[in-house]
Structure formats: C-alpha cells, structure tokens
Design a protein that fits this description.
single chain; mainly alpha; about 0% strand
Length: about 110
C-alpha cells in the first residue's frame, strides 16, 4: 500500500469517526475497500468531505420518505446504489478502480506461502 493510499484511508476513516454515524461508517468501509491504488486515493484526498455526502443522502432519504407518506423517518436505497453514488461524488470511475497499483517496494511474505 502506498503512502497516498494510507493518507486517503486515514482521512476517510477520521471523517467517519468524527461523525459518529452508522451510515458514515458504512460508506467509509466501502471507500477504504476500494482504495487500492493511487488514482482512487488522489480522488479521496481531493478535499470533498464525507460529511457533505452523508448529509446529502440523509436529506434525499427524508424527502423521499415524506413524499411517499410512508410514516418512516427515512427511506433507504439498496447498498450498491449508495456505493455508486459515493464513487460518483468523489469522481471515482471504473477505470480508476481497475488501475493497477504501483509497486510499493514492500515484499508481501504471504505471497511465498
């Protein structure tokens, strides 16, 4: 793992922990899972706060619940739709996700087993 990837994961994790919100942690877990190369890491470090995305999703869900008159406080979406939305929020493309990670110079001893 590169230094950029470590920084991006630390940034996203820190933001999620500050929010103390289960949805933020759910999204953080997805983002840290896809942060496997420097292209994704750069987009996560670009400055967009995770809090902005979470608040936007919460507002949309509340509005959807009100419009449906469902009686629920929040109407949710399938997990994959949130994953797609957060990737779009950070500008992460399919090409970014499939980019090969640069060699870090660290030898993984598990590869020898």
């Amino acid at each position: 793992m590169s230094m950029k990837q470590d920084q991006a994961i630390a940034k996203i994790t820190s933001e999620a922990m500050e929010m103390k919100n289960n949805f933020a942690i759910f999204i953080e877990e997805h983002l840290t899972g896809i942060c496997t190369n420097d292209k994704v890491a750069e987009k996560l470090l670009a400055g967009k706060p995770l809090k902005e995305f979470c608040k936007r999703c919460e507002a949309e869900a509340r509005e959807k619940a009100r419009a449906q008159g469902s009686g629920f406080q929040i109407a949710g979406l399938p997990d994959q739709e949130y994953f797609d939305r957060v990737e779009a929020f950070y500008g992460i493309t399919a090409e970014d996700l499939t980019a090969v990670a640069a060699p870090s110079g660290v030898i993984d001893i598990m590869s020898f087993l």
